[in-house]
Amino acid sequence: MEKIIKIVGENKEIEMSELTDLNLSLFDGATLTLKLLKLDDSKDIKISAKVGQNSHLVVFFADFSKRDILLKSDIHLIEENASCEWHLASLSSATSIKHFDVSFYHNVGSTKALMDNYGVARDKSKIVFSGVNHIKNGSKKSITNQVAKIIVFDKDSIGVASPILRIDENDVSASHSASVGQLNSDHMFYLMSRGLNKNEARELITRGYLQPISEKFSIENKSKIEIAIKEAL
């Protein structure tokens, strides 16, 4: 079942831990801060959004479930001064496969989209970050940026980061970065030289990488995130 959320000229904050497909519309200077927490179910999720003039969508997506997930999100910036921020953190373990496909479409000029995805893959699990930031012809003065970072813990864990920029206009600012790699050996050495064992050092680094997103959630859900990270490690 799809949940439809339409906001006109208002500021709203919505936090959800029972996730469903979402259809979002923001118009006339509306602002929506959407906080989505996935902990246990295996339901695939679709998010579609239209962001109008002077409106702003902020999404915090925290995925600390132990199951597979396919997230497909398409966000359309359809009027001038529309903007969106997307922040995602995910931890995979065991044999779970997690695929996050997040795309932004700049349909007019003077629009802005910023995305950062952070993941940690353990055991034989897999995390994939994909999606397109598309600045269409005529969308002058638009700004778009993608950041995707994945740490792979074990030799059988897999991380894939494949951000794509599709630029059909010259007068824009567009950038992306992607990195996939193992834990920083210098960081591990430093922490272990201070008395931590290997598992404690790994846990501390992981918490520093993923836990900041928990600060955006309610006290109850923040506690759930911290427990989920601890159990996964």
Indicate the low-confidence ranges by residue numbers.
Answer: none
Shape: globular
Order of helices and strands: EEEEEEEEEEEEEEHHH
Rounded to an integer, what's the Rg over CA atoms? Answer: 18 Å
Q: Quickly count the helices.
A: 3
Roughly how many Å apart are the termini? 33 Å
Largest sheet: 7 strands, parallel
Q: What proportion of the residues is helical, as a percent range?
A: 10-25%
Q: Beta-strand level of the residues, as a percent range?
A: over 45%
Task: Please tell me the overall pLDDT.
Answer: 92
Number of strands: 14
Please give the order of strands in the largest beta sheet.
1-3-5-7-9-11-13
Structural class: alpha/beta
